[in-house]
Design goal:
mainly alpha, 0% strand
């Protein structure tokens, strides 16, 4: 009996994780500039609750998206050898992400903000663009595209130095920095797990392209989102002067 997927073309050349890093270089200058503006000391105390609110809008979509992708894997072509291991990864990652949206609301409460008001706020179009594109690709192309989204977010989690700097420069209480601190510690492991999955899945060239397009779309959308948070009415930051640093997604 011929095994499922036998004879189909698979990706040749360097591992996909390495190829994604090479592609991220194209977006890195703009992403660094937007991140630098987002965390600039001036106005940071007032900007931080807005950041938490917007990140809650994005993060609360994570578990539903991952579970939806896993469901679509179960409904996919039985001869696609990518679907079963992809579903296992998506469900495992959904378990890891459970409750992280609640952390953001607790951080807001620690600042004296109303978490119920934040949860009810109209999500930004940039947030809908980030998460909504994933639903489209899952439904109308292939759920493997979701790996590009996850990869881009995990690679732009807060850096380890960010929570202490926020406390020092903006006078933020430690209780309001739980999400930033926790994701700086957690996401390195998540990134390693994901890259192992990317490099072992028997992806076709078209599936690898779906992951790459999803990652680049997410990175470019993050640039716009960070720039908007840094200056809702002004121009995007000058991308020529940015240092290389990690971004700020939980």
């Amino acid at each position: 009996m011929t095994p499922p997927g036998a004879g189909r073309p698979t990706v040749a050349g360097p591992p996909l994780s390495r190829a994604l890093h090479a592609r991220m270089v194209l977006v890195r200058p703009a992403l660094d500039a937007a991140s630098r503006a987002l965390w600039a000391p001036r106005g940071l105390r007032e900007r931080y609750p807005v950041y938490l609110t917007v990140m809650h809008q994005l993060v609360r979509a994570s578990v539903p998206l991952l579970r939806h992708g896993a469901r679509r894997c179960a409904e996919g072509a039985p001869d696609d050898p990518v679907l079963a291991p992809l579903a296992c990864y998506l469900l495992a990652h959904a378990r890891e992400e459970l409750g992280h949206d609640a952390w953001l609301l607790e951080d807001l409460a620690a600042l004296g903000e109303d978490p119920a008001r934040a949860a009810a706020a109209q999500p930004l179009p940039a947030v809908a663009e980030l998460a909504g594109a994933q639903y489209y690709w899952i439904e109308h192309h292939h759920p493997v595209a979701l790996l590009g989204y996850v990869w881009a977010l995990e690679h732009n989690a807060p850096a380890g130095w960010l929570a202490p700097r926020l406390a020092a420069t903006a006078g933020l209480p430690p209780a309001a920095l739980r999400t930033v601190h926790a994701h700086a510690a957690l996401d390195a492991g998540h990134t390693a797990d994901l890259e192992a999955v990317l490099d072992t899945l028997p992806l076709t060239p078209a599936q690898a392209t779906a992951v790459t397009v999803g990652a680049l779309h997410t990175l470019r959308s993050l640039v716009r989102l960070f720039a908007h948070l840094a200056d809702p009415v002004g121009p995007a930051p000058d991308r020529r002067t940015a240092p290389l640093s990690r971004g700020g997604t939980p």
